[in-house]
Each structure stands twice: as C-alpha cells, then as structure tokens.
C-alpha cells in the first residue's frame, strides 16, 4: 500500500496565487496573476513578488509553467482546489483530532449568516447520508 504524499501547505500569498489560477478560465500569465491578486485584494504587489510566490508554488508541486510561443508563459494548476481542500482538511484532522474539527465547524456556524448556516446543515446531511 502506497502512503499518500504529504504536500507542503501554501502560505496566504501562495494561496492567493492559486486562487487566481483555479478561478481563471484560461491558464493565466504572470502579469495576469499579478493584476488579479492586486485588484481582488486592493494590493500593489510587484512582479518580483509574484514571481517569487510562483517559484515557491511550483517547487511545492502545485503549479506548472507552460512555455508559449509568444514568449509569455502561462501557469497551470497540478492540484485542484477540491484536492487541496481535502488534503489540508485531512492534515488538520490528523493534527487536531475530531474534537477540534467539530469546534471549528461550530465556530463557523455561529458566525455565519442564515444562508450559510442552511448550506452548512445541508452539506452535513448530504455527507451523513453517503
């Protein structure tokens, strides 16, 4: 039986980059990523900062660079958002245990608005019925 590979967690900045890649219909360029992150978060990150994040994400195995003929490489996710969520939630569970998972869910529920609470309940019911 092969042990599941544990991938390093993404920092907040790296996660923002991956959010852009996951949300993009086409594989984005570095400039496209910089614009998206800066507009979404009202930031002014420089090209060098974005390049550093991209290199670290590639090193961690979440992203690949695809060279294009026009000289503007694009970036493609090697791990989907759902797969990342599954891996990080598994790691959280292993580290903190079921009691903390329930506490996290309860804290989310209390702070959420009514529609989010309803979505949470529906998701729990769907998972219970699987």
Give a description of the structure.
By secondary structure, the chain is mostly helical. The chain has two domains: 12-77, Arc Repressor Mutant, subunit A; 81-128. It is built from six helices and two strands; from the N terminus they run αααββααα. It has helices at 12-23, 30-41, 47-60, 81-96, 98-111, 114-128; strands spanning 63-66, 74-77. A two-stranded antiparallel sheet has the order 1-2. A hairpin with a 7-residue loop joins β1 and β2. α1 crosses α3 and α4 crosses α5 (98-111). The chain is elongated. The two termini are 25 Å apart. The relative contact order is 0.11. The mean pLDDT is 86.
CATH architecture of the largest domain: Orthogonal Bundle
Instruction: Specify the overall morphology.
Output: elongated
Number of helices: 6
Number of domains: 2
**N- and C-termini, Cα separation:** 25 Å
Q: Please, what is the CATH homologous superfamily of the largest domain?
A: Winged helix-like DNA-binding domain superfamily/Winged helix DNA-binding domain
Q: Profile the largest sheet.
A: 2 strands, antiparallel
CATH classification class of the largest domain:
Mainly Alpha
How would you classify the helix and strand content by structural class?
mainly alpha
Radius of gyration using CA atoms only: 18 Å
Uncertain residue ranges: none
> Major sheet: order of its strands?
1-2
Q: Please bin the fraction of helical residues.
A: 55-70%
Mean pLDDT: 86
Can you write the helix and strand succession as a string? HHHEEHHH
């Amino acid at each position: 039986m092969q042990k599941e590979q544990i991938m390093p967690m993404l920092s907040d900045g790296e996660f923002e980059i991956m959010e852009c890649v996951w949300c993009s219909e086409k594989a984005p360029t570095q400039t496209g990523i910089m614009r998206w992150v800066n507009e979404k978060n009202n930031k002014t990150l420089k090209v060098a900062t974005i390049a550093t994040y991209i290199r670290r994400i590639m090193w961690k195995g979440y992203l690949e660079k695809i060279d294009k003929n026009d000289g503007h490489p694009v970036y493609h996710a090697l791990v989907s958002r759902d797969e990342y969520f599954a891996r990080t939630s598994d790691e959280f569970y292993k580290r903190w245990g079921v009691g903390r998972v329930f506490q996290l869910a309860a804290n989310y529920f209390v702070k959420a608005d009514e529609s989010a609470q309803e979505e949470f309940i529906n998701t729990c019911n769907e998972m219970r019925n699987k």
